[in-house]
Amino acid sequence: MKTNYVLLVCALLGCTSFGAADRTTLLTKAFYNQGKLSDKIVLYFDKEPLCNQLPVRPNLKQTETKVEITLILPLVSIGSDAKNAVHKINKIKHDGYSISVSHVDLPVKGIRVLISYNPELVTLDYSTCDVISAQKGLVISFHDKRMLEKIKQASNPILRYASVDNRPKKKIVIDYGHGGSDNGTIGCHHLKEKDVTLQVGKKVVALLKEKGFDVSVTRDRDCFVALDQRTSAANNQEADLFVSIHANSGISKEAQGVETHWTPRSLLHKKIDAAAASCRDILELWYANLDKQTHLLAQCVHKNLIHTVHYQYADVIDRGTKKSNAQVLIGTDMPSALIEIGFLSHKAEAARLGENGYQTLIATGICKGIEAYCKQVPMS
């Protein structure tokens, strides 16, 4: 083992010494998504980093209640925008795991991610992914073994990981994109995405409540709420579904239309899976069914939104449903979709998006889509 450790250090030194000035990578953002089943730590980089798992140190004693994994990311530095988030991640207090992200000079200059976990309480995997914003992501997931056991014992375990409570109303979380210091895109007619999503979102919530749904929101006014706070709140409320409302922007002023994003598990490229076979089987079944329900949610919402706006505006472009990674979709533990309701960079479409009547049409379509989904999926 000692020989392997030395060889890997030499390999790291060799692969990072050439062209180092051109290959420096920045850790730009960090998020901590908490949930009943899984906690996910997501690190984003401006370009794909090298990620090497070091062998266990020869003098480190792994026990039944403590396992350590060390990841080395050569020539990566923590950006100023990510420092506070990284500091919070390093202070996580959890019975089942801890994590430390720090700059190191040895075995090579870069970032070390030190993961320590109790295999009796949690199981671990980590994956890489490409994100909508063209950044590269590293997703470290800790899965609660107690929840996995509950899922295993449930007669219909996959549709919801929460305890079966037979609540009469479906719990829906509506996420108004951006807010506060985060304007989102600023488009034609000086429209700000954060304002449009708030206006449309409030209409969606009112319509859903009229239909008898139990609805909560990630923000109720023009204020900043971090993305991991949004997803953690939805997870801990044991929501049945999560819908995030956004407005788009394009380099081309001609780009227009409506599109809906969903995140299948296949977009996460698993690198390490420390789960025992029994846990892995449960997780794979759970995620396969979650993907199925998430895809259905995206299809229902998109189809009904397009049909509703086409009654009055037949020229609205249907850009379809798209598989993609977005932070609010990666972080949720329930069926979730992100809707881009139109392009603020398109002059005519932006003008519509600012109109109360058109916003009501969009909200009606989203509400119909959620209703259609709920009729097909028994969630409690």
Query: Helical stretch count?
Result: 10
The CATH topology label of the largest domain is Aminopeptidase
| CATH level-1 class of the largest domain | Alpha Beta
For the record, give the distance between the C-alpha atoms at the N and C termini, rounded to a whole number. 51 Å
- Poorly predicted ranges (pLDDT <50, ≥5 residues)? 1-21, 161-165
So, the CATH homologous superfamily of the largest domain?
Answer: Zn-dependent exopeptidases
CATH architecture of the largest domain: 3-Layer(aba) Sandwich
> How many separate domains make up the residues?
2
% residues in beta strands: 25-35%
* Element order: H for helix, E for strand: HHEEEEEHEEEEHEHEHEEEHEHEHH
Quickly give the structural class. Answer: alpha/beta
**Count of beta strands:** 16
Tertiary shape: globular
- Percent range for helical residues? 25-40%
Q: Give the biggest beta sheet.
A: 6 strands, mixed
Question: How are the SSEs ordered, and which strands pair?
Answer:
Elements (H helix, E strand, L loop, with lengths): L1 H16 L2 H4 L1 E9 L4 E8 L6 E3 L12 E8 L1 E3 L4 H8 L6 E8 L5 E8 L4 E9 L5 E9 H9 L17 E6 L16 H18 L3 E4 L9 H10 L4 E8 L9 E5 L6 E5 L3 H34 L7 E6 L3 H4 L5 E8 L3 H7 L2 H21 L4
Parallel strand pairs: 1-5, 10-11, 10-12, 12-16, 13-15
Antiparallel strand pairs: 1-2, 2-9, 3-4, 4-7, 6-7, 8-9, 8-14, 13-16
Helix pairs in contact: 4-7, 5-10, 7-10
Short description:
The chain is α/β, with parallel strands linked by helices and 380 residues long. The chain folds into two domains: 2-152, Immunoglobulin-like (Sandwich); 171-376, Zn-dependent exopeptidases (Aminopeptidase, 3-Layer(aba) Sandwich), CATH 3.40.630.40.
